[in-house]
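Ticket closed. Logging final result for Fe/B12 periplasmic-binding domain-containing protein.
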Amino acid sequence: MKKFLYIILSVGLIMGLLGACSKKEVASNIDSSNTSQEASKDTNDSAAYASVTIEHIKGTVTVAADVKKAVVLDYGILDIIDALGIDVEIATAVSSLPAYLSKFENASSVGSLKEPDLEAIFEFEPDVIFISGRQQDYYDQLLEIAPTIYVETNGDTYLDDVKTNIGYVAQIFSKENEAEEAINKLNSLVEEVQAITAESNEKVLILLTNDGSVSVYGSGSRFGMIHDILGAKAADENIESSTHGQSVNFEYIADKNPDIILVIDRTLVVGGTNTANAVLDNDLVNGTNAAINNRIVSLNPDIWYLSGGGITSTSQMIIDVREAYKN
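Final structure:
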């Protein structure tokens, strides 16, 4: 009888142990399954952020999220990259860099803004390429080398275009917070200047001088943001809207008699012998309200002609207009 009870107890103990082991195995399998599912989810999430899709005027491109090297043939984009504090190896048109972007003078050189060196760009092995109007004819060739993003800034939509371009860079380099802060600051500056121009009846004329010749720019032009966004009243509301402005003579300037003349001297950045100071120093210009009241304001051509479209450059452009009204 005792032997029989011993056998029963032994069998019970063994069955209990087997049951416990079975439960542990099941629990282990469940934990393993959950871990596998979580790992799979993490992998899928990582995959979702492994690239960024950018829709731009010329098409849609997919850019790897971890960009190490970028070819930048638009100084506005280079400005944005700098202003957002992005750490990336740059190749650009080094020979004509604006002075305020001189920190990039040791970057890899890939030709000029008008004639990119396709071989140098290929050898640089970029992860992304940024271009604008000067290089648009090269778009298809550049697209064969790396994802290529076309950017632009138009006079009548300038600020929206700048914000769009900031967005491209912020998406690719995960700088959304910094981008939002920069845009908010730009908006504040714009509102400040709009309040000033709304209170003023002074008429503004925008001039570009080029080694002796003079052109004017109005609403819808490359410098049209002064009127279209900042609200400056135009000395002439019928200026032709064109890339190179409307060619005028000194009699025209005297006839329009602007209260403020904003001058961009192209000669200072592309070369020549006749600077704006010499060209505009004549009786007809000196008889205008702007000259009499010391309101002929020289704008930095590095910012206004070569660059523009960036965070730093756009901020400075808005400040320049604000200061012109304070003189």
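The chain is about 50% helix and 15% strand. No further action required.
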